[in-house]
Write a structure and sequence with these properties.
Radius of gyration: 13 Å
Oligomer: single chain
Strand content: under 5%
Order of helices and strands: HHHHHH
Helix content: 55-70%
Distance between the termini: 48 Å
């Protein structure tokens, strides 16, 4: 088994969850990989930037803007590269955050 296959399956699953608006499943899958404060399953690969992009996008689309930023900061802490899509979703989160949420 190629370890990249596991990352591909997880990232595809995260993006499928994002596509149907199921942020909870997207976050759960990332946690199974050891991201988001989860404990990595022995059989799962560590998450990559594509996995984080999917979770950030899903959270942002569902109005969970602070949570989206949490995963962005975690992604940075792990040394993973953000993509254009990451920044687009973060801008979306900022644009759709009420002033009261920022304080």
């Amino acid at each position: 088994d190629d370890p990249d296959d596991g990352v591909f399956v997880y990232s595809a699953s995260i993006w499928m969850a994002e596509a149907v608006g199921d942020y909870e499943t997207a976050v759960q899958l990332l946690r199974e990989m050891g991201g988001g404060g989860g404990e990595r399953r022995r059989s799962s690969p560590p998450p990559n930037g594509v996995c984080y992009d999917g979770v950030i996008s899903s959270l942002s689309q569902n109005g969970l803007h602070r949570e989206a930023f949490y995963f962005y900061y975690e992604m940075q802490h792990l040394g993973l590269q953000a993509s254009r899509k990451t920044y687009q979703r973060l801008v979306f989160a900022i644009d759709n955050t009420r002033d009261a949420e920022l304080s």
